[in-house]
Amino acid sequence: MIEVRGLTKRYGEVLAVDDLSFTVRPGEVTGFLGPNGAGKSTTMRMLLGLDAPTSGTATVGGLPAAAQPVPLRAVGALLDAGALLPGRSAFHHLLALAASNGFPRRRVDAVLEEVGLSGVARRAAGTYSLGMKQRLGIAAALLGDPPALVLDEPLNGLDPEGIVWIRRLMRRMAAEGRAVMMSSHLMSEVELTVDHLVVIGRGRLIADTGRAEFIASCAERTEREVVVRTPRAAPFGGRLAAAGGAVRPDGEDGLIVTGLGAARIGALAAADGVELHELALRQTSLEEAFMELTRDSVEYSARKVPARKASAGTDPTGKETVR
Ligand SMILES: Nc1ncnc2c1ncn2[C@@H]1O[C@H](COP(=O)(O)OP(=O)(O)OP(=O)(O)O)[C@@H](O)[C@H]1O
């Protein structure tokens, strides 16, 4: 179990992590999401003992990283897959890690097999593709057979095959009872993989929720839009507005309508003899809902939005909590 309580990190003027509390449970993959600069890497570095908190605690199995007798046995981490000695082979990289932690050599063979690098293990890591470096980083994380895994943007830059492979591996690691935490700044990367979501923005907690509940709350929050295409868009748009719909044009022959269901729009068209070329429901995607949730937390936004403070468990629109 990974537990973060009141975790805060200040770099001079920058409050990178602000009173953050959440739990990553065994048997689950928890997605740790937030836009660039939200504080994900800083939180993970504190969890791993690579950075000291300004205040608060981050523990794995009840102990902070510095107090773990053998850190690699407590938590495996992938932070920067590129941080390798380029001339050293995968085998020797892992062997050095195993030796310095007192792990037997057979663990090296086992993790190389696990990540599919056995065939290229003697090649210099500098010649590896990004996907192979990610696999090597994951092999190192698995070396101590730890009950918790912390992976920072593990899908970054991977091809579709690599993405599917990491997803399956994380699901399997969770099924074995490990607590798995993966960060991402894209909802689409994690929505197929995670059981639980912890969303942060500007260092603060925005949502701490099950994946299914997050999807349900997004569906509730976002109004369904109906796309209508007709050669008589302008007059029919007026008719829909008079019937209580909020209507905006979409090209010459299109209308986007909220506040009226597709059935009602179809009935109005039939009653008025309006020819329809399209009548379709458009559901906001999870990615759009996530962007909406974190919009005010984006460090460098193309749009100027007023800064609003989110409190733990409350979404920044202030409409509803998704905890
Ligand atoms: N060593 C540091 N010194 C000063 N500021 C820092 C340092 N490390 C991080 N920050 C700042 O803290 C904030 C959080 O950064 P962090 O890298 O944790 O975010 P992130 O969510 O991991 O972002 P990304 O997805 O871009 O990696 C940013 O404003 C960043 O500029």
Automatic annotation (TrEMBL):
Against SUPFAM superfamilies, the record matches this protein to: P-loop containing nucleoside triphosphate hydrolases (SSF52540)
Q: Which GO terms describe its molecular function?
A: ATP binding
Gene3D superfamilies in the record, alphabetically?
Answer: P-loop containing nucleotide triphosphate hydrolases
Domain spans labelled ABC transporter = 2-227
Transmembrane region positions?
A: none
Cross-referenced PROSITE patterns, in alphabetical order?
ABC_TRANSPORTER_1 (PS00211), ABC_TRANSPORTER_2 (PS50893)
Task: Enumerate the InterPro entries for this protein.
Answer: AAA+_ATPase, ABC_transporter-like_ATP-bd, ABC_transporter-like_CS, P-loop_NTPase
Q: SMART domains recorded for this chain?
A: AAA (SM00382)
Q: Which UniProt keywords apply?
A: ATP-binding, Nucleotide-binding, Transport
Q: Give the family per the record.
A: Belongs to the ABC transporter superfamily.
Q: What is this protein called?
A: ABC transporter ATP-binding protein
